[in-house]
Amino acid sequence: MSRALRMSSGLLLAVSLAACGDKGGDPMRQYGPNPWLPNPHQYLIPPMRVPKAVGWKVGEAPTVPAGLRIQAMATGLMHPRIVYALPNGDVLVVESNGPGTKPFRPKDYVQGKVKARAGAADKGGNRITLLRDANGDGTPELKSVLIDHLHSPYGIAWVAGTLYVANTDAIVAYPFMPGQTRIGAPGVKLADLPAGPINHHWTKAMVASADGSKLYVGVGSNSNITENGMDAEEGRAAIYEVDRTTGAKRIYASGVRNPTNLAIQPGTGQLFAVANERDEIGPDLVPDYLTSVIDGGFYGWPWSYWGRHVDVRVHPQNPAMVAKAIKPDYGLSSHVAALGLSFSQGETLSPKFSNGAFVGEHGSWDRSPLNGYQVIFVPFVNGKPAGMPIPIVTDFLAADHKTVRGRPVGVALDRTGALIIADDVGNTVWRVSGSPAR
Amino acid sequence: MVPEFTGVRALHPFFISLGGAFLIAAFFTDYMYSSNSLMQWANFSAWLITGGLVFALVSAVVLVIEVALGRAGPLRWLDFSLLAAAAVLSIINVLVHTRDAWTSVVPTGMLLSAIVAILLVIIGFRGWTVAAIPIANPGKGS
Predict the structure, then answer these.
(1) How far is A94 from chain B (nearest CA, A)?
(2) How far is B69 from chain A (nearest CA, A)?
(3) Dist CA A31 CA A387 (whole Å)
(4) Closest CA to A270 of A166, A359, A194, A380
(5) Which residues of chain B does A1 touch, with a Cβ-Cβ cutoff of 8 Å?
(6) Are strands A52-53 and A403-404 parallel, antiparallel or unpaired?
(7) Are A207 and A264 in contact (CB under 8 A)?
(8) In Å, how far from its chain's centre is CA A372?
(9) Residue A290: which of A310, A270, A267, A318 has the closest Cα?
(10) Across the strands, what pairs with A413?
(11) What CATH number should be reported for the domain holding residue A111?
(12) Which of A43, A107, A280 is best to mutate for the B interface (most B CBs within 10 A)?
């Protein structure tokens, strides 16, 4: 018996060593148009590594570079995910979390528990809260629940007297004029969006086109890499274009695994997206990305990544689609979970941040060492992301990587040009301004 | 001279046979997935292997108790080694089956399932037991 035991414990040890020795490299090699891509490999033990969510103590805040100032604009929120600035200066905060999915495999129970440790399972408010800071000092004089009892809302857009809310299963339109602090009228459904019965990537990012005639909606895949079956992926991993008046919709771009946020580039009107790429083929695969989105473009998922790198986990394979796959514009390094995207509007914070995009990196759950957990600025040159990113809001994660106080999600610029950040683990909305402390 | 039957039976073969049936079934569901690419078959495999390992644990506990109580005799080392190998391979296999989609089964997962199924068929033919079982207790009480 002892021999058999020794043999089995030896094998188990080899298995766990194989899992532990798997450290990711320098994420900086994977920022930019041509990220370093190692060979994929398969795991025996699914990669899972998360810090424990502990929240912010009174007076604590993330770190910003010298010359900038950060303050908590609102605290005690219920899992804030998206922030949105209205023309009159009011800030809307979408408090939300996924509707939850039933496990398919024994693995799903374990992964759910691990992600919950980092605060991912906290209940969302399913509401939109309005913050009014009329004097622009960063301390709102008014906090009001604008709409309640929503169904896992995420993207919002205000166009011409109507507030569009992208719930996980439908876009709902509410008559609304800036200045109002409460919407009493029931919403009217504009268009259905792909949701249950499986609803793996539940967020529905949304942005209005420059002329306001269309709404673009990000619909994530229904799995990591088709493990819930190909049928579940019908109409998924795509960016939809929805007519704002009729609700007619079409797939604008496809093969985007999880388009977690969308933004329109000022000046050009070009649609950009941040997307989260696939897991479990290595700590440095596959980089999340920021890209311009082309009408009719196909970006690879599930058959390939970063252009034509085939993913062997998808069966049957599809060489015809792989041949069509577009390479994204700019790598954001692997597993950072880029969730927030907002273009800068000139030198509102500092001359360094005049032309580019702010990206909220929610932070990895399946990579060692941890990656993300910060807000970065990606500089643009000639309308395209170029050069190395500049970390702008950091230290969400403790220095020892064991605990996390908050995790950044959506980002937006308010009327004064200050950067507003939703923090769904700290349950806080942060405001970063260039103005000196008062 | 006819041994007197005491009514005491060893239970561990029952649990070994249950776990064995689950693990043999997993080879079938793995094969089905490899032939039709429908994920639900691979999900069945993951549950069957997990269930097989739970019964392996129960079998081990029952076996230890029965040996301690004298209800199962000395270990039959060949059967024990085959069963231990099947259990260890199944632990690796349940991890392989945590991978996503095709490579959770093809090729490594299905190969391991096949080896385990062969081992378990041998163990089954040999009586689903790893210890000599006293089915009777001659002389007791007389």
Answers:
(1) 32
(2) 19
(3) 8
(4) A380
(5) 75, 80
(6) parallel
(7) yes
(8) 11
(9) A270
(10) A419
(11) 2.120.10.30
(12) A107
Which range among A84-98, A107-121, A146-160 shows the weakest confidence by mean pLDDT?
A: A107-121
ipTM: 0.89
pLDDT for A387-414, tens place per residue?
A: 999 999 999 999 999 999 999 999 999 9
pLDDT score at A101: 83
pLDDT averaged over every residue in chain A? 93
Tally Cβ neighbours within 10 Å of residue A198.
Answer: 17
- Yes or no, beta carbons of B92 and A225 under 8 Å apart: no
**Residue B50 to chain A, least CA–CA distance (Å):** 8
Chain-chain contact of B100 with A224 (C-beta, under 8 angstroms): yes
- In angstroms, the Cα distances linking A222 to A50, A200, A278 are 22, 5, 12
Q: Is the four-CA dihedral A91, A262, A306, A380 of positive or negative sign? A: negative
pTM score, two decimals? 0.93
| DSSP string for residues in chain B | -PPPP-S----HHHHHHHHHHHHHHHHHHHHHHHHH--HHHHHHHHHHHHHHHHHHHHHHHHHHHHHHHTSS-SB-HHHHHHHHHHHHHHHHHHHHTTS-GGGGTTTHHHHHHHHHHHHHHHHHHTTS-SB------TTTT-
Side chain identity, residue B17: S
- What tokens were used for A409? 């999600």
Q: At residue A430, what are phi and psi to the nearest 5 degrees?
A: -100, 150
What chain A residue is nearest to B44 in terms of C-alpha separation? A105
**Is A45 inside a domain boundary?**
yes
Q: What is the pLDDT of residue A113?
A: 87
On whether residue A12 sits in a domain, the answer given is: no
pLDDT at residue number A226: 97
Predicted pLDDT of residue B133: 76
A44 contacts B101? CB cut-off 8 A: no
pLDDT tens digits along B9-45 = 789 999 999 999 999 999 999 999 999 999 999 999 9
- Edge-to-edge strand ranges of the sheet holding A428-433: A69-74, A428-433, A419-423, A408-413
Tell me what the mean pLDDT of segment B118-126 comes to.
97
Domain that holds residue A320: 22-433
Residue A12 has pLDDT above 60, yes or no: no
Mean pLDDT of A157-177: 97
Size of interface A-B (CB pairs under 8 A): 78
According to the model, what pLDDT value does residue A21 have?
Answer: 52
Q: Find the mean pLDDT for residues A340-369.
A: 94
Beta carbons of A44 and B92 less than 8 Å apart: yes
Residue A105 lies in a domain: yes
Q: What is the tens place of the pLDDT at every residue in B57-75?
A: 999 999 999 999 988 889 9
